[in-house]
Write a structure and sequence with these properties.
With 457 residues, this protein is α/β, with parallel strands linked by helices. It has 16 helices and 16 strands. The strands form 6 sheets. The chain has a 5-stranded mixed beta sheet with strand order 2-8-7-6-5. The protein has a 3-stranded antiparallel beta sheet with strand order 9-14-11. The two termini are 42 Å apart.
Amino acid sequence: MSYLPEPFRIKMVEPIKLIDKKARESAIKTAGYNLFNLRAEDVFIDMLTDSGTGSMSQFQWAAIMTGDESYAGAKSFFRFKEAMDNIFAFEFFVPTHQGRAAENILVNILVKPGQFIPSNMHFDTTEGNIRARNAIPINLVNGQAYNPENLDPFKGNMDLQKLREFIISTGAENIPFGTITITNNAGGGQPVSLENIHQVADLYHEFGILFFIDACRFAENAYFIKQREPGYQHKSILSIAQEIFNTADGAWMSAKKDALVNIGGFLAVRDESLYHKICNELILREGFISYGGLAGRDLDAIAVGLYEGLEEDYLAYRVGQTAYLADKLSEAGIPIMHPAGGHAVYIDAGKMMPHIPPGQFPGQTLAVALYVEGAVRGVEIGSVMFAHPDPTTGQMVYPKLELVRLAIPRRVYTQSHLDYVVQTAKTVFDQRTKYKGFEFTYAPELMRHFTARFKPL
Ligand SMILES: *Cc1c(COP(=O)(O)O)cnc(C)c1O
């Protein structure tokens, strides 16, 4: 396989330092073995997330200088609106400071305690917002999604049969809205096909259920559609995106992903009365409707970034970089999720360290090891993040996969940075049987991975 070099050159640099192993061991201990608690300066290659960690282009920085900081009706808002109307084409939208702010507003307006929200797979903040409302997130992704060896091109697709059965057995009146996450972050950054998006939309609509898209990585998803789905090879990425959003009643997005900015998001809908309710919540929690918790300059950076994120040579490089890391890890014998997703490579920690049971957190163990060996920071996506007591039986329910996600910030690291990550992972892999698991010393009830603390077993 050949890989495209970065379609940009570097005009400004940010130094990074590799602290020695003793210092790393001490840093991770002080952090309670939670990588979120590390000081960023103690990390060499930071793959904790691709969220808000990208580099902005010269055009975005130039746009920042044109930001209009008027409280209401700023020019920046209308430049943002022009991009929103062109790409997403929902009748109404509001800016928010992040994706989760949009989720919070939507869930507070639409969801009552005890109701159910189906998705292919909910991301952690979506799940957290729904659970915080005492409602129940349901994951109905197709069965192949849980098989790391399966090479299906659209492993993010929803299982339509399961969705239909779920709606019938639950009753549409208990489902305030349905959603789908593109790409499927919690399931390996795997794309959803346009055929599946159409079918999911039709199914929700057949039962009168509103359909929302969690659009964080819509451009990467659109690129996969162009590459992999019959009939889309000659369509532009923009027109594929337009077709995706045309199926939905609304969408929300963390602009910190495919809009190539460091902060921002939006919530968009077609229904006017819903929009008015959203405005009330927004003003209460985020800010006025033309800035929604952002500065005017942030809106300008998003307006430019949304288009840059749709550029095909950028997307080819982006998806190619992820494939490069996946291929090199695979060649080293390290078990990963196949095929490579859009924004990250997911190491199968459950498979790599089968001697550690889910309750002792194999993913967390691997993530800590990668830091100690090479100051590489990834994130556990497994039992720390998703294990929870069953609401009726109280028994612990463990997720099907124990993963460590190595997310790739956009336009930040070069191929030799990725080679270093592979080298670090190989060192850990070669001594994988020596690692022991962890237990909690502190764990909050919701979204505990952010603030939990651990001790080694
Ligand atoms: C990042 C993300 C969110 C939340 O967005 P924030 O900007 O981090 O609040 C929601 N859904 C998915 C799929 C995400 O990747």
